[in-house]
Design brief:
The chain has 2 domains: about 50 residues; about 180 residues, Porin, CATH 2.40.160. It contains 2 helices and 11 strands. The termini are far apart.
């Protein structure tokens, strides 16, 4: 009787071991099937990542800071005053994106200076007015350009560009002509064109812009225009 019990126990243990072995084999096969099915997903993710990296290499982002000098004059139609060149300055920052074709948007503090003279007053007259006054502007240049050396743009670049510049007057500098904010239009729109040279992290730009709105509120033609030279850093 005891022998039968031992034999039954051995048989039961053997059956349990066989069942456990078959169960492990089944679940291992199921897991391997699932792994094979999910393998294409990481491959697709990697391909999308590579495509994004290629796109990122094609575009180029830059931040720029610069300062410049400008030479300003008014295209004025007045029997009393004539305008001559005067020197001002500007400070600005911008964000640029693109390689061959690029666009750029920025903000700059522009301080043009204008010189108005009364030609009817003799130069040695004690009543000669100081005809110099400045207008403090906040400009928002919106620029589109072409970089002819885009392949080597990280080292050297040669660019041409055009811009539309909304400009907002912030104030008028002290002057002896009695000109104040009440006498000028607080908004103007400039058209601009220029060229730029990039060398490593330094750039130099020069160009010309013209205001399509008269500086003064009266009916006198007084379109402002400006020649500018900027020197700055890009990063």
């Amino acid at each position: 009787m005891r022998k039968n019990q031992n034999f039954f126990s051995l048989k039961s243990a053997t059956l349990i071991l066989v069942f456990l072995f078959l169960s492990n084999a089944f679940f291992a096969q199921t897991d391997s099937t699932q792994v094979v099915q999910t393998d294409p997903k990481p491959v697709e993710v990697q391909q999308e990542k590579e495509k994004k990296q290629k796109k990122d290499r094609k575009r180029k982002d830059e931040f720029k800071i610069f300062a410049g000098v400008n030479f300003d004059q008014l295209s004025i139609d007045s029997k009393r005053y004539e305008s001559t060149l005067a020197a001002g300055y500007l400070l600005g920052v911008s964000y640029k994106r693109g390689r061959f074709f690029y666009w750029e948007i920025g903000a700059r503090y522009n301080n043009p200076v204008y010189n108005l003279n009364d030609p009817t007053i003799p130069p040695d007259s004690s009543s000669l007015l100081d005809g110099v006054f400045s207008v403090r502007n906040m400009d928002v240049p919106i620029t589109f350009g072409i970089n002819f050396l885009s392949i080597t743009s990280r080292i050297v670049g040669l660019r041409v560009f055009v811009s539309a510049i909304p400009a907002f007057a912030l104030g008028v500098g002290g002057n002896d002509l009695g000109i104040s904010m009440d006498n000028i239009n607080t908004f103007n729109l400039y058209g601009q064109g220029g060229v730029g040279v990039d060398v490593a992290f330094i750039f130099l730009e020069a160009g010309f812009n013209y205001g399509f709105i008269d500086l003064f509120k009266n009916d006198i033609q007084s379109n402002p225009y400006q020649i500018f030279i900027n020197l700055g850093f890009r990063f």
